[in-house]
């Protein structure tokens, strides 16, 4: 199976750059076929010079000329720009696996294209499964591709399920760090600042997922992601707060046995596992020692203070296009919070309001998801304009 040719979408982000560290450390096993960035042309150029992919995509079309000029001496690398180009390269025959490391709804169409082209997917972009989990899992079955989670919790569960193919899952338990505001009341959350929200205790990640982690929307998105990845009923998914982020998640089987996967919080491990599956590749990542963690603790998540978690469970229960609405509204709300336009608690207010306004569709098509995403964004933007 090696060397595997990797199309890395979102190569300039937190997951993207760590994925390149994994590729660098395993240069006989992985090669890079595609790199993409949204606007960070400088880093994209630097990466392209090092990894010499067949194609690079810069999302922001105004930066096309700069990338093209910088890579003029490298004719083997084609330079493309724009949203449609990402979807086009995702389906090209020169890659074996597509690592979706872009943030947000933008992952949906490239992922669909990659599956339809028969590629395995290493999925970091959880929003794709939140938006269109039913459609994506149907496509994965139809095109018989692999869908390997990169999200650490889902990678943990995926690893625990190896060898358990005949054994039904009773439930899964997703662990949550609780983020920087664990233990705070609603009144206290009303006062928190963007700078505080951007400081995650255990993980160094992109801005959007860092805010989602502080608001527990990230765990809500992960609950929906898990439903589709592992084919679960809603009542089979539990969340427990585990502030040390050492136990990455657990599976409980019908005999009551629990399996967990443990390790230091480092995304390189789940990235490498997803790219290398079914092989475990040697790695020099720092090892976990119990001596450094004499106490691993657990508590209930507070769904009243952190309303997003309750909203995500509700949206999952309503199914249809409701999770797509949840995701779109959250993306706009988080962006507004990052521009200091709304407070921390207003993010969940905007999401809740939007969920009650968008027309419900029980069996959405791909086009329905695209339309739902647009409608939800418009509704939240209109609300914001009135603040
Ligand atoms: P970052 O913000 O660090 O990186 C995002 C990447 O996507 C960058 O390469 C960025 O380009 C690109 N990008 C941004 N907007 C768009 C767009 N509209 N279309 C295409 N590409 C775009 O995010 P993370 O790496 O933190 O997260 C990526 C995904 O992985 C998210 O879905 C997140 O939920 C998931 N994830 C991340 C974890 C982590 O530890 N970071 C853990 C688990 C899951 P540019 O740099 O030019 O802006
Ligand atoms: Mg996670």
What does this structure look like?
It is a single chain. Strands 4-3-2-1-5-6-7 form a seven-stranded parallel beta sheet, with helices on both faces. Strands 9-8-10-11 form a four-stranded mixed beta sheet, covered by helices on one side. The chain is 45% helix and 15% strand. The mean pLDDT is 98. The chain contains 16 helices and eleven strands. It has helices at residues 14-25, 41-51, 64-70, 83-90, 108-116, 126-142, 152-160, 186-189, 194-197, 207-215, 217-230, 268-276, 307-318, 322-338, 344-357, 366-385, and strands at residues 4-9, 30-37, 55-58, 78-81, 97-100, 120-123, 147-149, 169-176, 237-241, 247-253, 258-262. It is of the alpha/beta class and 387 residues long. α3 (64-70) links the parallel β3 (55-58) and β4 (78-81). It binds NADPH dihydro-nicotinamide-adenine-dinucleotide phosphate and magnesium ion. NADPH dihydro-nicotinamide-adenine-dinucleotide phosphate (NDP) is lined by residues 10-16, 37-40, 59, 86, 101-103, 106, 124-127, 151, 203, 205-206, 208-209, 267.
SSE layout:
Layout: E1 4-9, H1 14-25, E2 30-37, H2 41-51, E3 55-58, H3 64-70, E4 78-81, H4 83-90, E5 97-100, H5 108-116, E6 120-123, H6 126-142, E7 147-149, H7 152-160, E8 169-176, H8 186-189, H9 194-197, H10 207-215, H11 217-230, E9 237-241, E10 247-253, E11 258-262, H12 268-276, H13 307-318, H14 322-338, H15 344-357, H16 366-385
Parallel strand pairs: 1-2, 1-5, 2-3, 3-4, 5-6, 6-7, 8-9
Antiparallel strand pairs: 8-10, 10-11
NADPH dihydro-nicotinamide-adenine-dinucleotide phosphate binds near residues 124, 125, 126 and 205.
């Amino acid at each position: 199976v090696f060397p595997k040719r990797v199309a890395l979408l979102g190569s300039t982000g937190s997951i993207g750059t760590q994925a390149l560290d994994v590729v660098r450390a395993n240069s006989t096993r992985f090669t890079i076929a595609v790199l993409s960035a949204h606007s960070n042309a400088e880093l994209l150029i630097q990466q392209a010079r090092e990894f010499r992919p067949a194609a690079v995509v810069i999302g922001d079309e105004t930066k096309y000329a700069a990338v093209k000029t910088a890579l003029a001496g490298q004719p083997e690398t084609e330079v493309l720009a724009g949203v449609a180009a990402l979807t086009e390269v995702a389906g090209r025959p020169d890659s074996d696996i597509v690592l979706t490391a872009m943030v947000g709804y933008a992952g949906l169409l490239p992922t669909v294209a990659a599956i339809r082209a028969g590629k395995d997917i290493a999925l970091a972009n959880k929003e794709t499964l939140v938006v269109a989990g039913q459609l994506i899992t149907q496509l994965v079955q139809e095109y018989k591709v692999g869908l390997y989670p990169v999200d650490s919790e889902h990678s943990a569960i995926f690893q625990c399920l190896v060898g358990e193919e005949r054994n039904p899952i009773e439930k899964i338990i997703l662990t949550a760090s609780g983020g920087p505001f664990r233990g705070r009341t609603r009144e206290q959350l009303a006062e928190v600042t963007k700078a505080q929200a951007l400081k995650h205790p255990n993980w160094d990640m992109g801005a959007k997922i860092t805010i989602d982690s502080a608001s527990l929307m990230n765990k809500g998105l992960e609950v929906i992601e898990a439903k589709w990845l592992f084919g679960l009923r809603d009542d089979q998914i539990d969340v427990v707060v585990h502030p040390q982020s050492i136990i990455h998640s657990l599976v409980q089987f019908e005999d009551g046995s629990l399996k967990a996967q443990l390790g230091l919080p480092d995304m390189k491990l789940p990235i490498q596992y997803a790219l290398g599956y079914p092989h475990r590749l040697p790695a020099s990542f720092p090892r976990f020692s119990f001596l450094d963690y004499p106490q691993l603790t657990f508590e209930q998540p507070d769904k009243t203070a952190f309303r997003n978690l309750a909203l995500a469970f509700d949206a999952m229960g309503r199914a249809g296009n409701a999770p797509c609405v949840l995701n779109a509204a959250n993306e706009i709300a988080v962006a507004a919070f990052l521009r200091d336009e709304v407070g921390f608690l207003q993010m969940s207010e905007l999401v809740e309001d939007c969920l009650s306004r968008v027309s419900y569709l029980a069996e959405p098509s791909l086009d329905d998801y695209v339309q739902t995403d647009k409608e939800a964004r418009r509704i939240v933007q209109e609300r914001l304009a009135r603040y």
